[in-house]
């Protein structure tokens, strides 16, 4: 547990936790989505601009949250309601990834004159769907953590600030 005056330390158990695993999966899947879209002529189609924005924006923020939790900075800055922040972040990411997935899937045209663009866009649609699901699962776990389900509220308050 990191105290406000101590230097940041790596939390190896975070990587094995459901939150760490889901954030890692979101980072990898989000990278796949935006890199597959970036490898096409997405600038010619406005729909892919939205997919690119959503995937890149949440990829960067997920990496930021991953580093915050990996370095235990969420315990150092305990005045921020991290479970609530993470729940809202995951819920917003889920909703926007739904729109990105639907937009990406609807814009894939099998009669594209560039076959590699079709393949990459179809793959990006698939990975956007899987990414959306991982954010949805993270929203569920974040909601449980925010509500304190599965732990005693008194013990979680003591262990967070001790």
TrEMBL record:
It is found in: Apical cell membrane; Myelin membrane. It holds the Pfam family MARVEL. Residues 14-147 form the MARVEL domain. Keywords: Cell membrane, Membrane, Transmembrane, Transmembrane helix. GO terms for cellular component: apical plasma membrane; myelin sheath. Its main location: membrane. InterPro entries: MAL, Marvel, MARVEL-CKLF_proteins. PANTHER family: MARVEL-CONTAINING POTENTIAL LIPID RAFT-ASSOCIATED PROTEIN, PLASMOLIPIN. This is Plasmolipin. It comes from Pycnonotus jocosus (Red-whiskered bulbul).
């Amino acid at each position: 547990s990191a105290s406000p005056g101590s230097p940041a330390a790596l939390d190896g158990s975070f990587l094995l936790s459901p939150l760490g695993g889901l954030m890692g999966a979101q980072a990898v899947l989000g990278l796949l989505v935006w890199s597959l879209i970036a490898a096409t002529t997405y600038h010619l189609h406005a729909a892919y601009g939205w997919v690119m924005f959503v995937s890149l924006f949440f990829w960067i923020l997920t990496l930021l949250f991953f580093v915050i939790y990996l370095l235990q900075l969420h315990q150092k800055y305990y005045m921020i309601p991290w479970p609530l922040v993470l729940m809202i972040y995951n819920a917003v990411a889920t909703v926007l990834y739904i729109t990105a997935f639907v937009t990406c899937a609807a814009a894939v045209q099998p009669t594209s004159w560039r076959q590699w663009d079709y393949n990459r866009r179809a793959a990006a649609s698939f990975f956007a769907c899987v990414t959306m699901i991982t954010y949805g699962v993270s929203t569920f776990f974040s909601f449980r953590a925010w509500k304190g389900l599965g732990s005693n509220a008194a013990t979680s308050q003591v262990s967070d600030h001790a």
